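Hey team,

Sharing the VOC family protein run so nobody has to redo it. Sequence (138 residues) first:
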Amino acid sequence: MATRLNPYISFAGNARQALEFYKGVFGGELALHTYADIGGGHAPEDADKIMHGMLETPGGLTLMGADTPPGMEHRPGNNIAVSLSGQDADELRGYWAKLSDGGTVSVALAKQMWGDEFGMCADRFGIDWMVNISTPQT
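Structure output:
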């Protein structure tokens, strides 16, 4: 298996809902493991929280996430976004439509001065996304 770089997102108790939402956006296989699945050492109220989740799509996208571990502070940041880019305009517009639904659009998906279509939004879970549809080079 090749080395891969992918986002790993910590959620404030709603990792299951968020990762299921992303599965609805991107498709693929979602594996969710709760604290109860791994056994031992967790409080009963944490049993159903997600200790590790991984979404893998047929197109090669991987997204991982979990609920913030018990005893740790959930600190969402504003210095990271998940970027989707490529030339398959229909696929990327479909992702954009689903990600921005119920979220907040900060830059509408539209043609930009560099020639590509680009948009930025925060989805309903507060995760920032950038979508860039590249103009094929001639």
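Residues 15-26 form the longest helix (12 residues).

Ping me if you want the raw files.
A.
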